[in-house]
């Protein structure tokens, strides 16, 4: 039984007889996309974990792409009716859009077991354990035996701003080279056996040669085997000395396989 952002008003903190609960089926998975408090944030979705596994994409409260201005959201690519609905309840409706996208991405929407969304964005919850990370959405039941008798499990992941929503998580470790530090930013793009990514920012601020930097990126492609990494940097101000920064080493770790 899959709960798509079950309702918060009149249901949160009520007895299990009147709301969705893990006792309602052999396996209950839940996607939380609008779990901010109803007052004052107008969250429509329930916040606490209530299933065998509960997914909190993007933290479960504010979904990427839902912060657009009213006009651009209403005059949406999917039509004025769809855009109007999204403007009124964009976060809440993301749950079914993630679910429908998950059907065509059986290797996507991996949920990382974590204590909170803040912890998910650190090294504490990466990579997936030996048995793999559960897939949010249609294929969540592949993991029902692992979580069937457990207490509530909270799983976190990030999604894209628009369809297609699936993203794949990588840990990037880069050691810089050069003669002196500069202020700016560095991007990388990953090339792999199953496709290439766009550029993703991994460092912003002071770039120091011989320092090692770690970042997590969520890519729009599951590249599988890495074949090449492109490293690019830019300084924020015009520097007449034309400093040069390179990368002496870059390590790419897949969250899916470790």
UniProtKB/TrEMBL annotation:
Enzyme type, top EC level: hydrolase
Keywords: Cell projection, Cytoplasmic vesicle, Disulfide bond, Hydrolase, Lipid degradation, Lipid metabolism, Secreted
Domain PLAT per the UniProt entry, residue ranges: 168-258
GO MF annotations, alphabetized: galactolipase activity; lipoprotein lipase activity
EC number annotated for this UniProt entry: 3.1.1.26
Classification via Pfam families: Lipase (PF00151), PLAT (PF01477)
Pathway annotation: Glycerolipid metabolism; triacylglycerol degradation; Glycolipid metabolism
Cellular component, GO annotation: extracellular space; neuron projection; zymogen granule membrane
UniProt xrefs under PROSITE patterns: PLAT
Catalytic activity from the UniProt record: long chain 1,2-diacyl-3-O-[alpha-D-galactosyl-(1->6)-beta-D-galactosyl]-sn-glycerol + H2O = long chain acyl-3-O-[alpha-D-galactosyl-(1->6)-beta-D-galactosyl]-sn-glycerol + a fatty acid + H(+); 1,2-didodecanoyl-3-O-[alpha-D-galactosyl-(1->6)-beta-D-galactosyl]-sn-glycerol + H2O = dodecanoyl-3-O-[alpha-D-galactosyl-(1->6)-beta-D-galactosyl]-sn-glycerol + dodecanoate + H(+); long chain 1,2-diacyl-3-O-beta-D-galactosyl-sn-glycerol + H2O = long chain acyl-3-O-beta-D-galactosyl-sn-glycerol + a fatty acid + H(+); 1,2-dioctanoyl-3-O-beta-D-galactosyl-sn-glycerol + H2O = octanoyl-3-(beta-D-galactosyl)-sn-glycerol + octanoate + H(+)
Location of this chain's protein in the cell: Cell projection, Neuron projection; Secreted; Zymogen granule membrane
Family (UniProt): Belongs to the AB hydrolase superfamily. Lipase family.
Listed name of the protein: Pancreatic lipase-related protein 2
Gene behind this protein: Pnliprp1
């Amino acid at each position: 039984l899959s709960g798509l952002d079950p309702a918060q008003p009149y249901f949160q903190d009520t007895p299990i007889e009147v709301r969705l609960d893990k006792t309602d089926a052999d396996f209950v998975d839940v996607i939380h996309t609008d779990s901010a408090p109803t007052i004052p944030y107008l969250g429509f979705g329930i916040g606490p974990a209530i299933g065998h596994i509960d997914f909190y994409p993007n933290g479960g409260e504010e979904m990427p792409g839902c912060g657009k201005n009213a006009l651009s959201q209403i005059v949406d690519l999917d039509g004025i009716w769809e855009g109007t609905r999204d403007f009124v309840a964009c976060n809440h409706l993301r749950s079914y859009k993630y679910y429908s996208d998950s059907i065509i991405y059986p290797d996507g929407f991996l949920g990382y077991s974590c204590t909170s969304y803040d912890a998910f964005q650190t090294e504490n919850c990466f990579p997936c354990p030996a048995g793999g990370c559960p897939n949010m959405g249609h294929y969540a039941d592949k993991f029902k035996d692992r979580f069937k008798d457990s207490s509530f499990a909270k799983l976190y992941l990030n999604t894209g701003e628009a369809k297609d929503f699936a993203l794949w998580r990588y840990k990037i470790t880069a050691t810089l080279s050069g003669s002196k530090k500069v202020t700016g930013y560095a991007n990388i793009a990953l090339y792999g056996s199953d496709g290439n990514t766009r550029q993703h920012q991994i460092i912003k601020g002071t770039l120091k040669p011989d320092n090692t930097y770690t970042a997590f990126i969520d890519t729009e492609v599951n590249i599988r085997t890495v074949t090449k990494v492109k490293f690019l940097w830019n300084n924020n101000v015009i520097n007449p000395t034309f400093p040069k920064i390179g990368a002496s080493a870059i390590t790419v770790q897949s969250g899916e396989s470790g």
